[in-house]
TrEMBL record:
This is Uncharacterized protein. It comes from the Bacteria. The lineage of its organism: Bacteria, Bacillati, Actinomycetota, Actinomycetes, Kitasatosporales. It comes from Streptomyces cellostaticus.
Length: 264
């Protein structure tokens, strides 16, 4: 039976016309699936379904999502993220598999801790993400033992913050992917102007508060603050998080940017 599938031009270009036509005809597409966005069941025979292709260096994982959650698209991820996704769904890593979702693997194997909260700047509440690694981040290819996390982000366009007195400038090309009220990823520009790639991606979509989501929809952007390991810590309340941000800024250990919002 034909499926109610959306296959974007970008996905069709990656998988080929023959495979796309087989999917649309219902030959290779599952009837039921777990949405790769909200993780709840879907049925491609009963509701519009998006094909989402996660592409690594050598492997591609074809996932399915409610069309109301995500549009059909190609998402570039690292090969290690993709192998984790394939393992999580019981695949072999050599073929496209259904229902996969990439895992959160940060550069140099340090895990990026991400905390959401509202930050008051110039009398207005702004949605913010605070990123802090669990270990020092060294420059790729470096044999040193230093921490290059902030210099690497500054090279990408993030700005040093000495105090939280004004909203940081927008960093075009980067974005925060929010779908169905959950935080999915921070995306950065692809190489050579290609598809955006996941700089950070949640293992499972993170729930955010209604007030955070409302502020994100109002401003259509999210402020991202980043600090080296040991600068912020896990703060249980937003006032304590703000204090930690202020201290990190005062010590020259904070960078920030405003990232456009992708999704709702």
């Amino acid at each position: 039976m034909p499926r109610m599938l959306d296959v974007s031009d970008a996905v069709r270009a990656e998988i080929g016309d023959e495979e796309a036509d087989r999917l649309l005809a219902g030959e290779n597409a599952p009837g039921s699936y777990d949405c790769t966005s909200c993780r709840t069941p879907g049925d491609s025979e009963q509701e519009r379904t998006s094909t989402v292709l996660f592409v690594g260096d050598e492997t591609a994982v074809l996932a399915f999502a409610h069309a109301s959650c995500l549009p059909s698209q190609v998402v570039q991820v690292t090969e290690e993220q993709l192998q984790g996704a394939v393992r999580s769904i019981g695949g072999t890593g050599s073929d496209m598999a259904a229902g996969g979702q990439a895992h959160d693997v940060a550069p140099e194997q340090a895990v990026l801790g991400v905390t959401s909260g509202l930050v008051l700047i110039e009398g207005e509440l702004h949605p913010a993400l605070v990123v802090e690694p669990t270990a020092p981040i060294v420059r790729p290819g470096s044999t040193g033992s230093g921490d290059d996390f902030l210099p690497l982000l500054i090279e990408q366009g993030f700005m040093p913050v000495m105090e939280l007195a004004s909203v940081p400038p927008v960093l075009h090309g980067w974005s925060v992917l929010l779908a169905v009220g959950r935080l999915h990823a921070v995306l950065q520009p692809g190489t050579g102007g290609g598809q955006p790639v996941a700089w950070w991606q949640a293992h499972q979509p993170l729930q955010v508060t209604d007030s955070w989501r409302a502020a994100a929809n109002k401003h259509q952007q999210v402020l991202m603050f980043a600090a080296p390991v040991g600068s912020i810590g896990r703060q249980p309340r937003e006032d304590l998080l703000r204090d930690a941000l202020d201290k990190a800024a005062a010590h020259g250990k904070l960078v920030a940017a405003a990232l456009p919002l992708a999704g709702t």
